[in-house]
UniProtKB/TrEMBL annotation:
Record's keyword annotation contains Acetylation: no
Organism in which the protein naturally occurs: Araucaria cunninghamii (Hoop pine)
Its job: Seems to be required for the assembly of the photosystem I complex.
Residues making up the signal peptide according to the UniProt record: none
Protein name: Photosystem I assembly protein Ycf3
Domain of life: Eukaryota
GO cellular component: chloroplast thylakoid membrane
Keywords of this entry: Chloroplast, Membrane, Photosynthesis, Plastid, Repeat, Thylakoid, TPR repeat
Biological processes annotated in GO: photosynthesis
InterPro entries named among the record's database cross-references: PSI_Ycf3_assembly, TPR-like_helical_dom_sf, TPR_rpt, Ycf3/AcsC/BcsC/TPR_MFPF
Stated family: Belongs to the Ycf3 family.
Cellular compartments annotated: Plastid membrane; Plastid, Chloroplast thylakoid membrane
PROSITE patterns, alphabetized: TPR, TPR_REGION
Entry membrane topology: Peripheral membrane protein
Length: 169
């Protein structure tokens, strides 16, 4: 039974019903509908922490989906799973792929910045302030791009940029 038919959560059930109605009334090719179904099931599995199942659904959605914009969100969600699993290098690869297809994806820019910032913190702990500064500068660039796209978001990042003198650079 597909995940979309076994949701126990009211919000998931509601989303599934609305998505099913939209799939019926919006004209799209059957491959696009099937890709969306896999994407939806991937999001459901991901929200429940079932990352292996979510990845299977996302990979299947990627196989079927041809629209670059839609693919960017699938790639972004794959990146989220790798971030959650602590696989930051792999996550960055997926965030970069998402941004190649959709440069206006502030959440991918933010998550990339977070990973860069984390690597800067690691460099400080390892006693390498020059490497840390390079990572922090990279984080600042990604955060500035994210903030330009979503000015009311990422308040903590905006404060960090101001405190560290990187906001106006």
């Amino acid at each position: 039974m597909p995940r979309s038919q076994r949701n126990d959560n009211f919000i998931d059930k509601t989303f599934t019903i609305v998505a099913d109605i939209l799939l019926q009334i919006i004209p799209m090719a059957s491959g696009e509908k099937e890709a969306f179904t896999y994407y939806r099931d991937g999001m459901s599995a991901q929200s429940e922490g079932e990352y292996a199942e979510a990845l299977q659904n996302y990979y299947e959605a990627m196989r079927l989906e041809i629209d670059p914009y839609d693919r960017s969100y699938i790639l972004y969600n794959i990146g989220l799973i790798h971030t959650s699993n602590g696989e930051h290098t792999k996550a960055l690869e997926y965030y970069f792929q998402a941004l190649e297809r959709n440069p206006s994806l502030p959440q991918a820019l933010n998550n990339t910045a977070l990973i860069c910032h984390d690597r800067g913190e690691q460099a400080i702990r390892q006693g390498d302030p020059e490497i840390a500064e390079a990572w922090f500068d990279q984080a600042a660039e990604y955060w500035k791009q994210a903030i330009a796209l979503a000015p009311s978001n990422y308040i903590e990042a905006q404060n960090w940029l101001k405190i560290t003198g990187r906001f106006g650079e």
